[in-house]
Inverse folding.
């Protein structure tokens, strides 16, 4: 049986990696040909991709993990 949250997590990770590498491509293309504007766009896209990847690892994905996190927070 497949894990639906694992598939969702893999999709977010894949999307973050794709965005990050597209940003890297824009950055390198701007560095070689177009100038600082494309470099800036590339850096912004890379930062968004890294943010998505980081959020994928930090935030809980299943309802059980969210419930446990809320219960731990309420105990404090």
């Amino acid at each position: 049986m497949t894990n639906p949250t694992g598939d969702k997590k893999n999709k977010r990770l894949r999307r973050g990696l794709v965005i990050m590498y597209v940003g890297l491509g824009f950055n390198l293309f701007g560095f070689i040909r177009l100038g600082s504007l494309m470099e800036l766009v590339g850096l912004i896209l890379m930062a968004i991709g890294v943010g998505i990847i980081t959020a994928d690892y930090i935030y809980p994905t299943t309802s059980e993990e969210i419930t446990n996190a809320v219960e731990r927070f309420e105990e404090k």
Remarks:
- The CA atoms of residues 20 and 46 lie 4 Å apart.
- The chain has one domain: 4-75.
